[in-house]
Amino acid sequence: MTVGQYEAMVRRAQQDPEAFWLEQARRLSWQSAPRQASRSEFTNDIRIDWFADGRLNVSENCLDRHVRTQPDKVALLWQGQEAEQKESLTYRELHARVCRLANVLRRLGVKKGDCVAIHLPMVVEGVVAMLACARIGAVHVVLFGGFSAEGLAERLSDSGALLVLTADVARRGSKRIPSKTTMDEAIARCGAESRVQHVLVVRVTGADVPMQPGRDLFYAEEVAREQPECPPESMNAQDPLFLLYTSGSTGRPKGLVHGSGGYLLWAAFTHATVFDHRPDDIFWCTADTSWITGHTYVVYGPLANGGTILVYEGLPSWPEPGRWWDVIDQYGVTAFYSSPTVVRAAMREGDEVVRGRSLASLRVIGTVGEPISPEAWQWFHDEVGKGRCPVVDTWWQTETGGVMITAAAGCVTPRPGAACQPLPGVQAALLDTQGQPVEGPGEGLLCIAQSWPGQALTIWQDHARYRQTYFTTCPGYYFTGDGARRDAEGDYWITGRVDDVVNVSGHRIGTAEIEDAVATDHEVVESAAVGVPHDLKGQGLVVFVVPRQEGVFDPAAVSRAIAAAVGRYAVPEKIYAVRDLPKTRSGKIVRRLLRKIAAQELDGLGDLSTLADPEIVQELIASVQAQNA
């Protein structure tokens, strides 16, 4: 796409969004084409409504139409941790695998609208499972492999999943993750709330795992019994495709629901537009499929566009630094989409590691998950992109379904550290603390003024929470929860979260979820979790703990409680034992002070007179310094 074509698209979307999105809808194959784009409403009851009179099937869009036109084109390249572990699947072959599993699901009683939980590492079966659910109209919920049994149980109970796909044992570098036994414990924890009737087990390592007769079945044996054809279910564009859990500022994770038509169009549109997709691209998004980035840019966007995706099971630097750069050279990757955390880790390994690889195939490189610093952006551009690849730093959320603000490759001039420009059809706005729009250059709350196709429809079984979370802070707007600055050129710079969510290596962790876990340690009276800047992870988690008895406190016990309730990825960088926490007279913890103290940013602590005990601040500073000594 040329700059002129992109700018024309921006104008068209502004002038006549209804016509623009109906034109864009032609990217998809419809069983019944929509005659209306959106009837969404950001006031009163809140309704997200896209292509509601259209019918389609997501799996058919990602597979069947490409099987008809390019059956022997490679759809999926898979590389395992070891060099000999690899697969290459054409669209015809991927279609057959998806149909076989879809038939298994139907045989086991899964129907349109039922929920299926997918708890798999980065193996081919994970992609197949998502598309098989879409084929029969089942709603999939992909669960992160690092969740504890308690975290899995909470999500299984809330989603009401009827069937689970899991691995025997997952690989993560030299570590082995006991997926099946953790899932068994999770289902047991659900007790009477569990609706799980079957567990399909994928043999990843071949390890012996306990199998419950009647409930547990081996994946390979079941799909071998089925035919490679399965008629796709006809779905309304508003029917749920998947739900995906994300942490909020309250302890209970929320299941965001994404629909079929609007989401798939947004995935296809943004993949094509942001990354300047070309037919011969090898597209590698390194995200796990348990996160929204993996849904949209590992699976649905590239496959809807008839592209070739690369799925890699292993870690960036295992068994040695530079492993991911070797994979790029091995497969001729043209578009590489990863996280600032990966970039910072590569910087630490040294320039000679990346300079020892060709990377000549790369055409576009991008980042996602958190803002990238100008220094890391420049290194990524110079060393990985060799100074010739556009860098697309992307801002978006689980709730948005796909990229919202970026420097689209070849169409918008990128600037180190800036999110840059809203995509065509994205009506970004800044509001001040009184809810008034900020015109021109300025800073404020980042909001979206109008709905877009990829927007989440609701929170699973809790539309009131959806309304409360996203539409009450700034009435008439979708409130992103982020702050931003807009400069004189109209570029957006994300300034960070304005609620109590910590972003650790792209994983959004609700501080209340951490504090709920800490509360299970009976030696703890109270705690407060905050995020602080971290040179590798973007943000690190720090927890302040008030022990029940002074001098009786075991930080390791708190870490174990968090790992058990949330997952090891949420274990804090630091745990400080303190006498008390800074609170207002109404009892609200003043987290901004804890963030500053934890980060040793002691200038400009602000007015302390509103605290119930102003002297606690200096006591906290001294305590933290002593514990760091």
Automatic annotation (TrEMBL):
Residues 513-588 form the AMP-binding enzyme C-terminal domain. Gene3D superfamilies: 3.30.300.30, N-terminal domain of ligase-like. GO terms for molecular function: acetate-CoA ligase activity. Its EC number is 6.2.1.1. Belongs to the ATP-dependent AMP-binding enzyme family. PANTHER family: ACETYL-COENZYME A SYNTHETASE, ACETYL-COENZYME A SYNTHETASE 1. This is Acetate--CoA ligase. It comes from Acetobacter farinalis. The lineage of its organism: Bacteria, Pseudomonadati, Pseudomonadota, Alphaproteobacteria, Acetobacterales. The gene is acs.
